[in-house]
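In response to reviewer comment 3 from the previous cycle, which asked for concrete evidence that the modeling workflow produces usable outputs, we include below a single protein chain processed end to end. The sequence was submitted unchanged, and the resulting structure tokens are shown without manual editing.
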Amino acid sequence: MTSVNFQELDSNATPMGLLTLRRRKHVTLGIDIYEIKLDEEFLMSSLFTVGEVALANLGLAELSGPELDVVVGGLGLGYTAKTVLGHPEVRELLVVDSLREVIEWHRQGLLPLSEQLTSDHRCRFVHGDFFAMSASRFKGFDPENSGRRFHAILLDVDHSPRHVLHPHHKPFYQSNGLHQLTSHLLPGGVFALWSNDSPDERFQIALSEVFSYSETHVVKFSNPIQQREEASTVYVARNV
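The workflow returned the following structure tokens.
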């Protein structure tokens, strides 16, 4: 499907549903907007990236020192990964995504940030299930280095701890799932999560049961299409 103001760049059937990448021109704003959809559900839009940027900046703000190793769960349009790479103290970034198609979009240069990510020697894409990797204590997130631990793990896959893309993600957001994640963090390491929902008290309790410190940030941003302010949530927790 192609027109002057709309182009479907790619579409693939996946185990989670029909994954579609499209570009459309917003005539009033005068910009191209890139969108990823799963069936009829919008996963992300290049018009709204404040939360993805905040996830990286708030998560890394809790760390100090050179040569940080970071995992980002969820590649998407690449805004969280790009922001992480904007921190010069980052030594290596692993971006884990279960959808090979999304990784290929970036390798083919279909998205605005693709070249910045693929040309940075610090950035490595990993095709895999973030949640299964987190639950696997001895393998972990780096297929080239089993059991490797990281300074920060940042996650942006599901809409929120309650609104998940697949039922097998749900256990991760409970105390046991979060405890499994800590085995992949270095002492003093940070876990940060983006959520499209308002702060969730049940998830905050789970964080407090596992981590020595946790904080919830409400990130506000403007919606120029509907001309209103909206908000997302970033949770930041620190390991002992």
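The mean pLDDT is 93. We consider this sufficient to address the reviewer's concern, and the full set will be provided in the supplementary archive.
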